[in-house]
């Protein structure tokens, strides 16, 4: 096995590792294509510098053996070489981020509240990257992951399945949202019965949040006025801001948003939060760009307690 040339600028250590590996000055010299006397001189200089003997030199076929000091040095230098290899791999990956394509599937809320800031940061650091972003509900993101249309999925309430590998998660509360001039806008927390009779803007029935709200409202006997139903959370929030009604969404905005909306915590154990997750199909190799993106998502989630 050839010794790495990462230590080429430290010839005495490189020569030491070759001799330790081959157990012979001659075989090490053949591997390095230099004279055995040159290797012997370098190792003698190294021993003098360190003040220890690295090899027991005895006559015979097996006369060259590492001393205890030599074994310690071999172990430590091997660790350094391994770290140099890892560093080289990481630097090559960083070079790979100078180009490439990132394919993402995201929920609409994530696209509006989170993704634009992340892509802007990526673009400033790696301007040669290109992007494909599919804005879908969670079941459709899963389908696109399965079909290989996207590499990374970022959204709420991915089902637990062995097919998906979760790369990062962040638990978010479900909040009542109102316009800023609504009677409940200045409250920090509300009971569920306090929204009785309110005009309510519901998310589409295909969304897990809607199914939770229907079940919770029915069990609580809560009566609201369904004034609008939409599969667009952007439109839902705009209508709340304009005073058409109130609604509930998972999670306060992760990024600054221009919408003027109040978020109020709901005091009801049945109003569960949602899990924002970054996922991929288990076992598939991520591209360098996808790997870096998922790492940045994990770092961002950690800032919010994820």
From TrEMBL:
SUPFAM superfamilies for this protein: Periplasmic binding protein-like II (SSF53850), Winged helix' DNA-binding domain (SSF46785)
Among its keywords, does the record have Phosphoprotein?
no
Alphabetically sorted, this entry's keywords are: DNA-binding, Transcription, Transcription regulation
**A cellular component term (GO) from this record?**
cytosol
Q: Which GO terms describe its molecular function?
A: DNA binding; DNA-binding transcription factor activity
Cite the HTH lysR-type domain residue spans from the record. Answer: 13-67
Q: Which InterPro entries match?
A: HTH-type_LysR_regulators, LysR_HTH_N, LysR_subst-bd, WH-like_DNA-bd_sf, WH_DNA-bd_sf
- Pfam annotation, one family: HTH_1
Quote the PANTHER family the UniProt record gives: HTH-TYPE TRANSCRIPTIONAL REGULATOR YBHD (PTHR30419), NITROGEN ASSIMILATION TRANSCRIPTIONAL ACTIVATOR-RELATED (PTHR30419:SF8)
Query: Which family is annotated?
Result: Belongs to the LysR transcriptional regulatory family.
Task: Report the protein name in the record.
Answer: Cyn operon transcriptional activator
Q: Which organism is it from?
A: Hartmannibacter diazotrophicus
